[in-house]
Design a protein that fits this description.
The complex is a heterodimer of chains A (357) and B (334). By secondary structure, chain A is of the alpha/beta class. Chain A contains twelve helices and 13 strands. Chain A has a seven-stranded parallel sheet, with helices on both faces. Chain B folds into two domains: 2-73, no CATH class; 86-243 and 278-327, 3-Layer(aba) Sandwich (Glycerol-3-phosphate (1)-acyltransferase). In chain B, the strands form two sheets. Chain B has a seven-stranded mixed sheet, sandwiched between helices. In chain B, strands 7-8 form a two-stranded antiparallel ribbon. In chain B, helix 2 (14-22) crosses helix 6 and helix 4 (34-45) packs antiparallel against helix 5 (52-73). The two termini of chain B are 26 Å apart. Mean pLDDT of chain B is 84; it is low at 1-53. The chains are: A alpha/beta (357), B alpha/beta (334). Chain A: It holds the Pfam family Epimerase. Chain A: Residues 13-242 form the NAD-dependent epimerase/dehydratase domain. Chain A: InterPro entries: Epimerase_deHydtase, Lipid_A_modif_metabolic_enz, NAD(P)-bd_dom_sf.
Chain lengths: 357, 334
Amino acid sequence: MTPGGTPGAPGVVVVTGVGRYLGAHVAARLAADPRIERVIGIDPATPGPEFAGLLDRVERIRLDLDSLGGLLADLDVAAVVHLALVTAPDPQHGGRAAMKEQNVIGTMQLLAACQRAPRLRKLVVRSSTAAYGASFRDPAVFTEETEPREVPRGGFGRDILDIEGYVRGFRRRRPDVTATVLRFAPFIGSTADTTLTRYLSQPVVPTVFGRDPRLQFVHFDDALEVLHRSVAEDHPGTYNVAGPGVLSLSQAIRRAGRVAVPVWEPGLSGAAAIARNLGFGRYGLDQVDLIVHGRVVDTRRLTREYGFTPRTTAAAFDDFVRAHHGGVVVTPDRLAAAEQVVLESIRQVRSAVRDRT
Amino acid sequence: MTAQNGHRRLTTTPAPASRNGSGPDPTVPATTHPTPAGSGSAASGAGSPVVERPGDQWDRRVASGLAFLRRRLSGQYEVDEFGFDPELTGTVFHPLLRLLYRDWFRTEVTGLEHVPADGAGLVVGNHSGTVALDALILSAALHDQHPAHRYLRLLGADLVFRMPVVSELARKTGGTVACNPDAERLLGNGELVGVFPEGFKGIGKLYSDRYKLQRFGRGGFVSAALRTGTPIVPVAIVGGEEIYPMLADIKPLARLLKLPYFPVTPTFPWLGPLGMVPLPSKWLIEFCPPIPTAHLTDSADDPLVVFNLADQVRETIQQTLHQLLERRPDPFGP
């Protein structure tokens, strides 16, 4: 029991990656929880002005994960929430090399520091359903026990496998620490801004010819709730976090009022590889694999252990659609109007024909 | 009543029926058919003394067809976690398959009382026909003729899910990859699952080996049934072997194209696309009494129990096949 902390809820919490959207929101939410004494945000960069208001009550330390040293031990840290992951290479910030440096090496260094922190009781790591890879022989629904059949082609998928491997090692070395790994489905919502939301908000969405993957999303607010509960309560283990239910990609594009343009798959993979080599665009093989294979996970363990069910994939997606009006090509109202026009004109033609005979 | 009228009309006017039957193109005819059929019928129906009643019926059809199109285009339909789209299957795929199994193959189904009306069941059949048409015919006939109109969730080979377009058609009609996690998940959800344990050995066999059941693999389907305590319903399908009689298998070409076999039939590849038209054999489907497995749940990992049960299923299907063949002396009879 750390002084001041209620059982379960830790006293001092360190959140990595507070310079990014997810990290800033999680840190703000933990700081608003009276059970938690101190929230310390770590990020190598100064958080952007858009997060300044959010991070009022969060102590911020500008620090690279490799210079963490004995900081966690000195601060008497009881819980670490590791969110500093890069999901897609950013050409302006070093591309894939920097992404791997941050994801893999950063996690290694954080876990090394965690191992030397004697008061640490809890570790929460953000992972992704990309941990299941992508293969044609995959089962339709992944449970937490499903092993990937082959190493993913995409960089992010490979990083995730490495990160989870380090967490497994950490669990062996520090069995006294409650380690929670959360495999999130892609985030969506009215405010989330990710590679996938940008992809789906284009007026014309490229898809893969002959493939209609099954997708799942998790609403950003539900992801926050699960992260919050992971810190405030004890939930050791690995959990899939996704909205129940499924949308197929074609269905999602239609619900968003966009137009799908099927592209031949080898062409798309080639284009993604060229784009990456030339250093533009954030779409990579991770995204291509997702829109070829799709990804659906079983969330029964989350519901059982957390007593919380995220809103459905369809509901989360509706929230995204409402917030992204721009670029809509087809709306349900226009379709309904067109339906009425066609129906009326058919009726008129038929009655005209009947009158003449 | 309305459905019967529609069927009679389709069978008495040969032109659209035979055209649809010979070229099973899954999307084009079904999405466009309500409109031309509606206006055509209004023109012909206007001459008859009873104008109002058929007119109303066609109006309803046009309206429901348009509403269906609007729902599809705005994405307002449900897909389950395996990708099964009941609306699309019921509105587009099954009507097409109905033409094929009822009018082209004259299929007779018996023993439907052995298929459970609710809860899980594992339907195990013999595989045949060079192209796995028997699985589709079985699922459409079962859905149409079973009193509870149950959907058969088929388990397909990896190759099916590797191919673009085909993989999505398989998922949308309720299929998924044949693997134990998926089979057990479907059975655990109380679904009716269809499996063909012979796999490519069954559909890729030569015409001279017709109705000889091939090896049943490792019996993975039995352990899935045992783990979930699901009854196994063997089904014998006669007629599939004659639709594309495979005279030879060009193995080097198959290896080149990465296919399990490359068939040569009396019409394929000689006649090109025309060789894809299945011969109109007479089909008989018989469901056999279910084999209960609820008392064997603990033996799911016992190879002896699994192999014995797989053998029992295999023997049942083989014997039923012989009985059905005696009932059908002429493969192309009425």
